């Protein structure tokens, strides 16, 4: 195998949006809504479970060329992971449908059935879906999932279903596991995350659920790369899940409390963002909300960014001029589609109230400035 092939498989790893905008946000000491981690602590029962696991016995501290369809917008790591595995990404964009309601929703972004069907060929081995999705917050409906399931079964394709935000749905949206559809258990790998479930993203602990004939290959890769997850966090996660199992369906359940808290934060952030002309696309689930920036009039004459897409220039302007950190949504699309979706930015609303207070102060000053300019 040539050196050039190895370089092509790994070059996407280091070149990504997180490096550039993380450094820029740190340089300007912004109020940061760009990254998907809570700036409030996990619930007390999760911290107690971890403390108990850490203080446990000795055993707790020892070792215990294919085509892949990616629905976009997507987390940029999907592409690099696909390439690293020797696959070739084939992109399928969600597109906003024409709507009359003044408040757009992530539900308005849909798949074209004919276009999706055309992406499946005899060389297609997998499709990656994310529901609720990052950055859009879309929760795929039963009819949409059935369409994907039918194509997977017809073409004998594996569905890699990223469901890390499965417990975070809003306004009555219902998360449905595609693995539960008839015939799909044998075709699905479902991905979950302790960090997203229990607001502890630093634990870096997740799981994959699926049939043995597929998971044995995941286990082989894991055993020969990462090898093992920290035992104390695994033990703490088990305790957290047992607690949720006992509380399931009650008002004390964290899986019921957290979505209510986050929906309130999302609505609060959407309202203050609207005050300066940003148009929120209300998410049905997840950590993030997209904002349409096309109606915001700002001076983006920075010569250092003149050759970049509009959303990237806008985000850098927000950081430098307003002290507010966000992420350009074009980074979540393929190179072929990015120019069509450069009028959106992504914000994370999973923030402490004090952070949202700071955001409101920034946007109020901005709104007052706009009003003064219009008088």
TrEMBL record:
Domain (Aminotransferase class I/classII large): residue spans on this chain: 68-357
Annotated EC: 2.6.1.63, 2.6.1.7, 4.4.1.13
Domain of life: Eukaryota
Gene3D superfamilies: Aspartate Aminotransferase, domain 1, Type I PLP-dependent aspartate aminotransferase-like (Major domain)
Catalytic activity as recorded in UniProt: an S-substituted L-cysteine + H2O = a thiol + pyruvate + NH4(+); 3-hydroxy-L-kynurenine + glyoxylate = xanthurenate + glycine + H2O; L-kynurenine + 2-oxoglutarate = kynurenate + L-glutamate + H2O; L-kynurenine + glyoxylate = kynurenate + glycine + H2O
One MF annotation (Gene Ontology) recorded for this entry: pyridoxal phosphate binding
Cellular compartments per GO CC: mitochondrion
Cofactor(s) needed for function: pyridoxal 5'-phosphate
CDD domains documented for this protein: AAT_like
Keywords: Aminotransferase, Pyridoxal phosphate, Transferase
Pathway: Amino-acid degradation; L-kynurenine degradation; kynurenate from L-kynurenine: step 1/2
SUPFAM superfamilies the UniProt entry points to: PLP-dependent transferases
Biological processes, Gene Ontology terms: kynurenine metabolic process
Function comment: Catalyzes the irreversible transamination of the L-tryptophan metabolite L-kynurenine to form kynurenic acid (KA), an intermediate in the tryptophan catabolic pathway which is also a broad spectrum antagonist of the three ionotropic excitatory amino acid receptors among others. May catalyze the beta-elimination of S-conjugates and Se-conjugates of L-(seleno)cysteine, resulting in the cleavage of the C-S or C-Se bond.
Subunit structure: Homodimer.
Family designation: Belongs to the class-I pyridoxal-phosphate-dependent aminotransferase family.
Protein name, per record: Kynurenine--oxoglutarate transaminase 3
Species: Ictalurus punctatus
